[in-house]
Design goal:
The structure is a single chain. The protein is of the alpha/beta class and 163 residues long. The protein has seven helices and five strands, in the order H-E-H-E-H-H-H-E-E-E-H-H. It has one domain: Maf protein, CATH 3.90.950.20. The mean pLDDT is 93.
Length: 163
Amino acid sequence: MPIETTIAARLIERGWRLALAETTTGGLISVRFVSLPGSSAYFDRGIVAYSQAAKVQALGIDPDVTKTHGVVSGESARAMAAGLQRLSQADLVLAETGIAGPIRGRSPKPLGMTYFALHTPTGLLAAEAQFDGDRHGIQQQIADYALAMIAGYLDVDVGTAGA
């Protein structure tokens, strides 16, 4: 059973709603949830805030966060999650921001560097990870990691959920 199916069941069981703020994945995480029948029972929204301006306008983050720490940073991921939680009032909000390549752009960070933040009823969890591969491969790995992060918080057994 796909991990998103198990996560969906746990969200429904708890009566919780999920919102996502995606950059690098361009909506891949949201697609995995909304592809499931009945997703309106737990999925609130997914926002692809790719540019710095979109992060400020759509997620309400302070522009100084991205100016000071960069768009691809733990601080930006945490601000994205907190901003979307304020806007959506969802129980769980996951944000991701990273660099998928093939070119690095303006960031000094390496390709595949990604930052995650999960806003939960008990606080904010953050993580960073480095992924390898081509653009598509990195995006898929980011989506998988994000789902594993949500599953971990919900005590979903990732080993059996993805089988």
